């Protein structure tokens, strides 16, 4: 194998390869996938002079440890965390030179859930349907990282960015999700719609890349029975039989039979990627379809 590669020393709880996702294949039943916190992934790529579409690593909660086989430039963004190179503290949110054979340790998140590790040249696993993203629902793309795995890297670009401070959005103390009601809001009672937009929910520990699950008041249905399966979109707020809203994230299914009461504004979704379990959630209706 080429010396343009990363050896995985510690894979962490869940570390996956992600890029901008495989859009345009929903009609084939293929979810979009891609980085949950897309702005953080894009920033990491900019810091190491990668194109925005380059694949990065998305860690969950406890980071990962990597050993490059050649000297590389890395940047860690997203959830703030300690970064060390051969045991010595290194910068978070800035370009860092990691010599060949040195150990890059990305530690546990101090705030937020998901950190992004960009490496000069990008992670160059084979693309599937135009994307290198790991899709946990369909199984497309590379599997989640395991200890001992080796990841190929692409060729590095121009000089990395020179920055003193990289823009950083802190994880939300309260997750505010602006929603457009519909298309199936008429399947719920008037009190249920008021509950959705006036009562507080919390992020459930059962959340994952497929959906942000909530804890809180149940939403009462006005129509019994189930829908025939229909198309689902990123940010759809689906209400399963327990009545508690689920916000679909990047690995969401492309169809579903539970009613969608609302759809979250796309620019609110990166914050959802960093909302830890227990974070208060508020749904704010911006307009009706």
Could you characterize what this model shows?
The protein is mainly beta and 289 residues long. Helices cover 9% and strands 31% of the residues. The model has no long low-confidence stretch (mean pLDDT 94).
- Could you tell me the mean pLDDT? 94
| Alpha-beta content class | mainly beta
Please provide the count of β strands.
20
Q: What is the count of helical runs?
A: 3
User: Order of strands across the widest beta sheet?
Assistant: 12-19-16-17-14-13-20
Which percent band covers the strand fraction?
A: 25-35%
Shape: elongated
The profile of the biggest β sheet is:
7 strands, mixed, barrel
- Rg over CA atoms, rounded to whole Å, is 20 Å
Distance between the termini: 54 Å
State the low-pLDDT regions, or none. Answer: none
- What is the H/E order? EEHEEEEEEEEEEHEEEEEEEHE
User: Roughly how much helix do the residues carry, as a percent range?
Assistant: under 10%
